[in-house]
UniProtKB/TrEMBL annotation:
It catalyses: L-seryl-[protein] + ATP = O-phospho-L-seryl-[protein] + ADP + H(+); L-threonyl-[protein] + ATP = O-phospho-L-threonyl-[protein] + ADP + H(+). This is 3-phosphoinositide-dependent protein kinase 1. GO terms for biological process: cellular response to oxygen-containing compound; intracellular signal transduction; regulation of developmental growth. It comes from the Eukaryota. Its main location: cytoplasm. ATP binds at residue 63. GO terms for cellular component: cytoplasm. GO terms for molecular function: ATP binding; protein serine/threonine kinase activity. It comes from Cloeon dipterum. Keywords: ATP-binding, Cytoplasm, Developmental protein, Kinase, Nucleotide-binding, Serine/threonine-protein kinase, Transferase. The chain holds residues 33 to 354 of 549 of the full protein.
Length: 322
């Protein structure tokens, strides 16, 4: 039954640490604790609503999944993974993980699952890139640096996002990034991490065509370097205004990716081009940063980021996007 299959989702879903939780009282929440507002996001099996906590008046985003739909589409694994990853990232949130949406609590009713999340007031990064055509160098440096800090933290925990793209990068009220949508992510455990490299377990997951790495297309294996490929695509997109591999169909996009068929247009900043060229490398282990032991010193020391203080990014005032 749907409750059996999804009961695991509820099993460990107590509210998170009370000191950072928006609720004044302990105990399981329900949809009665919130006033639901407009739809702010829609996925293939979920809808995200703007909501207000009736006890604190705090605004939240609530992701609602229809259980029947989740089971019909065999997506229970995705939802469990998303919850597990959000829980890992929500621990010690302010100190270590300022660049992720935080999961406050989860609850369910007979038909639906609910995740209460940070509300990212300024929505997705994508329309900002589209609206201005492309980012200036300051904006590109700042926002790609925040994404890199976020990747460094996730990867240190063994989490690969696998669907990193400007639609999954949200902006809070201060215009800092909040990465979301961990339904496609993968958690490498310590023993797995080495095994994974050797065995190259097959899985059927492929992210979004424009940002998917060649290794996901050829041997269906993802590593943290797959997110570095996506970062290369996003830096290119910020500078050029379009993704590096675009074509009329997914099939043709995949062909271009596998042939590394992209060009940086005239006027593309030379240091940004050098960085993109070092991230968009077919062999994943040859990407800049792929062999770094801890953090991404080889990316951070690239001339493109000269003078950037990565440690204090979330305390800095973001450059105005124009
Ligand atoms: N769209 C999807 N998730 C969201 C969130 N947490 N905040 C704002 N918009 C969203």
């Amino acid at each position: 039954s749907k409750t059996d299959e999804l009961s695991l989702l509820a099993a460990s879903s107590g509210n998170l640490s009370s000191s950072t939780s928006p609720q004044p009282t302990a105990g399981k929440r329900s949809s009665k604790d919130f006033i639901f507002g407009r739809v702010i996001g829609e996925g293939s099996f979920s809808t995200v609503y703007l909501a207000k906590d009736i006890h604190t008046s705090k605004e939240l985003a609530i992701k609602v999944c229809d259980k029947r739909h989740v089971i019909r589409e065999k997506k229970a694994e995705y939802i469990k993974r998303e919850k597990e990853v959000l829980n890992m990232l929500s621990v010690n949130f302010k100190a270590t993980a300022p660049f992720f949406v935080k999961l406050y609590c989860t609850f369910q009713d007979p038909d639906r699952l609910y995740f209460t999340l940070t509300y990212a007031k300024n929505g997705e990064l994508l329309p900002y890139i589209t609206r201005v055509g492309c980012f200036d160098i300051d904006c590109t440096r700042f926002y790609s640096a925040e994404i890199l800090q976020a990747l460094e933290h996730m990867h240190s925990l063994g989490i690969i996002h696998r669907d990193l793209k400007p639609e999954n990068i949200l902006l809070n009220e201060e215009m800092h990034i909040l990465i979301t949508d961990f339904g496609s992510s993968k958690i490498l455990n310590a023993t797995h991490r080495d095994e994974e490299r050797a065995v190259r377990r097959r899985n059927s997951f492929v992210g979004t065509a424009q940002y998917v790495s060649p290794e996901l297309l050829t041997d269906k294996s993802a590593s943290p370097a797959s997110d570095l490929w996506a970062l290369g695509c996003i830096i290119y997109q910020m500078v050029a205004g379009v993704t590096p591999f675009h074509a009329g169909s997914e099939y043709m996009i995949f062909q271009k990716i596998l042939k590394l068929d992209y060009i940086c247009p005239d006027g593309f900043s030379p240091s940004a081009k050098d960085l993109v060229d070092k991230l968009l490398v077919l062999e994943s282990s040859n990407r800049l940063g792929a062999c770094d032991k801890e953090g991404y010193p080889s990316i951070k020391s690239h001339p493109f980021y000269q003078g950037m203080d990565f440690e204090t990014l979330h305390q800095q005032t973001p450059p105005v996007i124009s």
